[in-house]
Structure formats: C-alpha cells, structure tokens
Amino acid sequence: MTAFRALTGHEKIKKSLTGAIVSNRVSHAYLFYGPPGVGKRTAGMAFARALLCSGGGGDACEVCDECSRSKQGVHPDLHLIRPDGASIKIRQLRELCDGAVFTSFSEGRQVFLVEQADRMTTEAANSFLKTLEEPMTGVVFILITDELTGIPPTVLSRCLCYRFNNLSRADVTKVIMQEAGSAELAHTMAVLSGGSPGRALALLGGSAGRDRALEMALSLAVNSRSAMPVPPEEISGREGAQEFVNYLTVLFRDVMVVQQTGLGELLINIDRQDDIAVLAGAYDRREVLDILLTAEETARRLAGNVNQRLALDSLLLKIAGF
Ligand SMILES: [Zn+2]
Predict the structure, then answer these.
(1) In the Cβ-directed half-sphere of 307, how many Cα atoms lie within 13 Å?
(2) For residue 318, how far is its CA from the centre of ligand 1 (angstroms)?
(3) Least enclosed by CB within 10 Å: which of 68, 159, 199, 290?
C-alpha cells in the first residue's frame, strides 16, 4: 500500500489527483487506463488512500488512523472489486452498489476500486451505470483497465479518464532496482520491458530464460558445425518459443552493436558484456545480420500456425553456422 510520493513516474497524473483532493474538487468516478504493468493499480490504491486520509494534504500522510488502516488493508471504507472467475458479475456490483448507499464508517468518503473493469458483464455494467447516474455524496469509484475498448461508452462518458503511459527506462530501473540487485541487470530488464515495471519484474523472475538463450548461443558459436543443435528442453509451448527467439534477437542485436560501435554502454544486456564480446568475435557482420533476419522470420512463423520445432531449428542452424 503505497502513497503518491512513493510512486515512480506519472507526475502529471499524481499532480492532478492530488490537486483535486486539496481543492476539494473530487469527481465521483475515475478511470485509469493504459498498458499493463505500468502502475495503474498502485496509483489507484495511492489515490484511494489519499482520499481517505484525514490529513487533507492530497496524499496519504501515513500518521493518521485512516492511513494506518488503509496501509494494513483493513480500511472499512476502501472496497476492492475484482473479477470473480472470468468476469465482474452483477451480484458483485449489487453488493457494491448497496454498500454505496450506506454512510461511511468515518463519515467521510467511501472509495471503490474496480480492477479489470473491462471484465464487467453487460448486466453488471448497466447496474453500475445506474449508480453513476445518481452519485452519492462522498462515494468515489476508481476503475482500472488495460483494455479501454472493453469499457461501455456510457460508463466511459461518466468517468474522468487518465491515461497511464509506459515509464522511461530510468524510472523502470528505479522501480525494479531492489529486486534486480544490480544496476546492470535492472537496466537490462528495464530496456527489455519496454517501459513496464510489471513486465520488468516478470522478466526478472524469468531471467533464467535469457541466460538459457545466451548459453545456447555461446555453445553454438563455440561448437559450430560439430553437431545438430537441439532447442533447450525447458522451452514449452508457443509462448516459450517466442520468448526464446525474442531473447536471441536481443542478444544478436547487442552483438551487432558491439561489432559496429565497440561501445559496451549501448548494450541492452549490459550485465553480460563479456559474453556478448565472445559472440561478437565468433561471427562476422554479415553472419550476424543473417541471424537477425532469420530470427525475425522465425518470430513471424511462430506467430502463424507452424511447427514450432521446425521454426526454431532453422534459427539454431543459422546460429550454429550450418
Ligand atoms: Zn493520513
């Protein structure tokens, strides 16, 4: 349970929401949308806590009773709604809407945070709309979604919408620094994540996949043409194969950068500079370009309906120099 000041990035949004609280111009319904993993839910939670804080400073003060309750996740006026199974059902919304009629425990606000709001069934959305048409004093809804197109226009038109964008590499690095343990690994995952701290954390959890691709490339480069390459056993399913090809693409992109510029600081896999240098010495520029083109073709074939093993084999053969 965070506060706005501990949330990295999204400066304009934080300023706008804080300003609304301080100037007492809070709307009844907000919609936070944008790509996954960029901090919409965290921001929604920070906003909810700021709304409930009795300090009035526009952000959770962390010293009042309200803040200590919301921090522990036991604030009676902070309600979380998330899909029950595949969707948010009318039953859940009815409970929510009935709840919204009651006065708050602290005679202040009541905040409803709706996660994956695009998963509302039509009936649920209609029922929700009724609540939005007759808003109760002090009731604030915060809807969160990755899929703006899944929100009915009638609901959309009654919400104040905030678009959350991808974060800068520097901001993602900052967010995942503690989990990464080293600045180099944090940088690498920040670049690979494309600006999503959530994706960067998932990549960190799966950084074994990157290391597997690197080991494979190194062994093929060193033992080239000595044996038919075999994809690592751990790769399973289409997604696993796509991820493996993605890692190989990024690796050889780095090899090309080293060959063309000699600059280690431009690498995505900046934490594995020595290994990239080994690969850069094992291939000439034309071969690296060939590998990258084959990787691109492999990714395209994997996205289509092809035999995964065949698609991977052609890439590994290219890397092995056959
Ligand atoms: Zn407080």
Answers:
(1) 4
(2) 60
(3) 68
Cα(184)–Cα(190) distance, integer angstroms: 10
CA of 278 to the centre of ligand 1 (A): 55
Rounded distance, CA 96 to CA 68, Å? 23
In this predicted structure, what is the pLDDT of residue 20?
A: 96
CA 224 – ligand 1 centroid, Å: 63
Query: pLDDT tier at 204 (50, 70, 90 boundaries)?
Result: confident
Amino acid in the structure at residue 86: A
Return the pLDDT at 146: 93
- From the list 47, 43, 1, 14, the residue with the least C-alpha distance to 140 is 47
Residue 277 has pLDDT above 80, yes or no: yes
Rounded distance from Cα 8 to ligand 1 centre (Å): 20
Residue 54 alpha carbon to ligand 1 centre in Å: 5
Q: Does domain 206-320 have CATH number 1.20.272.10?
A: yes
Q: Which CATH number fits domain 4-163: 3.40.50.300, 3.40.50.2000, 3.40.190.10, 3.30.950.10?
A: 3.40.50.300
Would you state the pLDDT for residue 297?
92
* 4-163 and 206-320 share one fold: no
**From ligand 1's centre to the CA of 86, what distance in Å?**
35
Q: What is the rounded CA–CA span in Å between residue 50 and residue 18?
A: 8
User: Cα of 55 to ligand 1 centre, how many Å?
Assistant: 5
Using CB atoms within 10 Å of the CB of residue 67, give its burial: 0 to 12 exposed, 13 to 18 middle, 19+ buried: buried
User: How far is it, in rounded angstroms, from Cα 99 to Cα 286?
Assistant: 66
Question: How far apart are the CA of 12 and the centre of ligand 1, in A?
Answer: 22
Ligand 1 centroid, distance to 47 Cα (angstroms)? 12
Q: Quick one: DSSP state of residue 270?
A: G
Q: How many Å apart are CA 29 and CA 15, to the nearest integer?
A: 18
Give the Cα separation of 137 and 26 in Å (integer).
Answer: 11
